Description:
Blueprint: E1 9-12, H1 60-73, H2 76-83, E2 84-91, E3 95-97, H3 98-102, E4 113-121, E5 127-135, E6 141-150, E7 156-166, E8 177-180, H4 189-192, E9 202-207, E10 213-219, E11 225-232, E12 237-245
Parallel strand pairs: 2-7, 4-8
Antiparallel strand pairs: 1-9, 2-3, 4-5, 5-6, 6-7, 9-10, 10-11, 11-12
Amino acid sequence: xxxxxxxxxxxxxxxxxxxxxxxxxxxxxxxxxxxxxxxxxxxxxxxxxxxxxxxxxxxxxxxxxxxxxxxxxxxxxxxxxxxxxxxxxxxxxxxxxxxxxxxxxxxxxxxxxxxxxxxxxxxxxxxxxxxxxxxxxxxxxxxxxxxxxxxxxxxxxxxxxxxxxxxxxxxxxxxxxxxxxxxxxxxxxxxxxxxxxxxxxxxxxxxxxxxxxxxxxxxxxxxxxxxxxxxxxxxxxxxxxxxxxxxxxxxx
Length: 252
């Protein structure tokens, strides 16, 4: 999504987020959020804000498109707040809680535009990672990768959002790629998938309640960032997203 704005389990390295400039969809006028630890019973991301009105059969692609449409009609930051979970994380350039970053922001006159190009979904349909392209009103372009979680009330909320600029825009597909994880039961990914957070970095990772999709991010002191997602194919976890964002002196 736009801000450099990804259930049952989320592990974060808790260091005080640094204040820095934004470069992503949010920074594109957007940013990703740094939140507290998720509850292990799957209640992560339930929001104090009223859930966006959504049809019962809404897909993660539908949610992304509705989010983008809201940005155009009710205002960019209003839409970001509306569709975020309480503990959603954005990157500006360090990870920070999205609600905190967004609460006093006034909507720009013209919102950034974005579109999904691919969606990777857990077998049980409770977690998804969308990726796609964005275009700012000044003509700058880039990409986003956003983690979405299906809530207990039936709505979708984004829980992590990030991205970066590109030299050329991503194409707008008529039908975005959609891949659903294999429904065979994977090994206990919480035990078997090892996440190592480098020294002086801030990290987060999680997976769907059925273990068929995993994601993680790492942010270095200079603002450089990794975001990765993998999908279970019945035999192994196959990488589907591998984003690398460079740091900059302004982010140090």
